[in-house]
Amino acid sequence: MSESDGGAPLDENALEQLAQRFLLARRTGRTAGPASEYTMLRDTETGLRVAAKLGQMLAADGIGISGLKLGANDSAAQRAMGLPGPLVAPLYEEWMLPAQAAVPLSRFVQPKLEAEIGFRLVRGTWVALACIEIADSRLSGWSGQGGQILADFALNGAIVRGTDLGTAAETSYEVRHDGALVAAGTASVSEARRRMEKHAADAGVRFVASGALHALVDLEPGAWALRFREGGEVAVTVTGTTAPE
């Protein structure tokens, strides 16, 4: 039972068991099951407690927090995800990848791709850069809501960081898969910077992914590239297939 079910809060043992299930699913590229098995995580407070337990487990394995991810930056996205406000979650160093990275699909369960504007802290100044997030859900069918999302690594699978964007306040971008255009649009660097600055100082991190620029697209094998008009690009090569569930 959880607080939202009218029962007592989950104890430390229950939190640890839930965290272990999500961590195992992540490390094996297999589903943690349907959201219906995790009704105790529908409230955000319990989801955050599981997420904190995950952080403790990873820290014990020597895996620290390297950044912060933002998401659900508008009210429509927050309603769709069952969240009371924007998504703010840690990024762990093991899944922070450099530009030109090559990754096997078997690392993920149900991966999708989104272009983002990232920010890195350089000698006290935040510099914008091209960034790809490989989003992933360990709950089958991307069915998680609210606290389930928070407990599930906030839907992060990996972050691929690219080159700097320059100083433009607004830019345009293209996402291509094996040369074919799959997403394009304009992006406000200044708005992304405002979102980032609202959360970065308190988190004490040196990298922030500021949120998706377009709707999620299914991650398939091949060469993926994100390019911004004024400069800034990142590429990732995806191989193989996802692990069987």
Assign the CATH architecture. Answer: Alpha-Beta Complex
Give start-end ranges of low-pLDDT stretches.
Answer: none
Instruction: Tell me the name of the CATH class.
Output: Alpha Beta
H and E order: HHEHEEEEEHEEEHEEEE
Average pLDDT level: 93
Largest sheet: 8 strands, mixed
Could you please describe the fold and organization of this structure?
With 245 residues, the chain is of the alpha+beta class. 25% of the residues lie in helices and 36% in strands. The strands form two sheets. Strands 1, 2, 3, 5, 6, 7, 10 and 11 form an eight-stranded mixed beta sheet that branches. The mean pLDDT is 93.
Please summarize what this structure is.
The chain has 5 helices and 13 strands.
Descriptors:
Fumarylacetoacetate hydrolase, domain 2; alpha+beta; single chain; 25% helix; 245 residues; eight-stranded mixed sheet
Write the layout of secondary structure elements.
Blueprint lengths: L11 H17 L15 H17 L4 E7 L3 H7 L5 E6 L3 E2 L3 E4 L7 E11 L2 E11 L11 H5 L4 E9 L5 E8 L2 E9 H15 L3 E6 L4 E2 L3 E7 L4 E7 L6
Parallel strand pairs: 1-10, 3-7, 4-13
Antiparallel strand pairs: 1-2, 5-6, 5-10, 5-11, 6-7, 8-9, 8-12, 12-13
